[in-house]
Amino acid sequence: MDRYTEFKQISLPKLNNLQPGLESTCLKLMEEAGELAQAIGKFRGLNGEKVNLEDREVVERISKELLDVAQVAVSMMFVLEEKYGINIKEKVDEHVQKLIAKGYIKVQE
User: Which residues form the NTP pyrophosphohydrolase MazG-like domain (predicted)?
Assistant: First the structure.
């Protein structure tokens, strides 16, 4: 694969105490995304409520919700890989190439 100006990798574990299916994982992903949106709206004062949190605390809460979203998304990829035979590495490589083609990632010469 090409070299990028910056490439960070985040790895999240496979949850081994669950038996997720595609549909249940998708529903959980939507639930967690809703919680993230709610946290952003509420803690940023977008819902009209007065917020008594410091900016750092707001960002900390948002980051926790975002990681919940990421964990469920990773779990859904494991479901696709294990139950449907999708090659996740291949899909990630295709995704990165799409990002390069759209100009979202600059390739080092």
Answer: 23-101
Q: Please write down the long-range contacts of 32-37, taking CB distance under 8 Å and 24 or more positions apart.
A: 32/65, 32/68, 32/69, 32/72, 33/69, 35/65, 35/68, 36/62, 36/65, 36/66, 36/68, 36/69
Q: Is the pLDDT of residue 73 over 90?
A: yes
| Statement: the pTM of the whole predicted model exceeds 0.85 | no
Contact 25, 76 (CB under 8 A): yes
Cβ-count burial of 72 within 10 angstroms (0-12 exposed, 13-18 middle, 19+ buried)?
buried
